[in-house]
Amino acid sequence: MNFDLDTDQRDAAAGARQFFSGSASASAARAALEGGTVEPGHEALADIGFLGITVAEEAGGAGGSLLDLAVVAEQGGAVLAGPSLVTAARAAVLLADHPELAAALADGSIAFAVLDGPADGSAPSIDALGATRFLALDGDALVVGDGEVRGGPPIDATRGLASVRLTERQVLRQDAGELWARARRVAAVVLASEGLGAADRAVQLGVAYARERHAFGRPIGSYQAVKHMLVDAWVGVDQLRSLVWWAAWAADAAPEEFPLAASAAKAYAARVLEHAAETLIQVHGGIGFTWEHDAHLYWRRAKVDRLLLGDEAEHLDAVARLAVDGALGV
Read out DSSP for 3-42? Predict the structure, then answer.
């Protein structure tokens, strides 16, 4: 059995890496904190087709798998790009039976956000600041509508977090609880994919600095304390990559495994990204936490992402319950 990506997915990852490296960066994330625009932005993501990767072909999307989207999202996470592909992935699931709205998602003519919490006053939700229409679970009904948006001082401005109160709503589907749960799991996997990209980049930056920074006549990477920190962070990234690929694959190929895999990936991503960001700061002798260095931007992303779509404890609890119930058939 082949557990690797196929050629098309590797080509997609390479193309996404080229696109994101030319259109987003840590410096752009810093500028967003100071009131600048989030890069590459909604329009650019729509133009290149990333918003429609998992939208059905008949609705103008690519009809791709969650794994196809995950390998692209990883490259966006590496440069702290925004808006998040989490929103596109989640909305594509919720709008699958509404081709006109799905087409508007794919071509970018409507900027959707998916609300967490009550429709009359949501919790801070991803990409809500830049959205024009909002999807929410109202009781057990899936609704779409306009809303009043209330933001606040951001920790990570690229996430576009804001609370929303719907001012009007249209019911798209009754009894949408199971659909909503699946969409949230899909979103958790894409969030973990972006976390994987950010953690990988943080480790790379730490390794590069450990090679060039000298102390007592030697590169600091030659000292065991620094070396072990970086190796531990790298091992976490490598393990997270396996979890993310498994979860993304399971969404389409092994639905019975998907709930457990999605929670496992989301829980571990929170730990791995935070560890990688803190390691990057430590390798830089603490200066990485200051405003003058980009390391703090990865730390900010880690602190925000660990609380989005359920924290580590919630997802570990889900993993335990599903494992006890025999989710993997063992």
Answer: -S--HHHHHHHHHHHHHHHHH--HHHHHHHHTT---SB-H
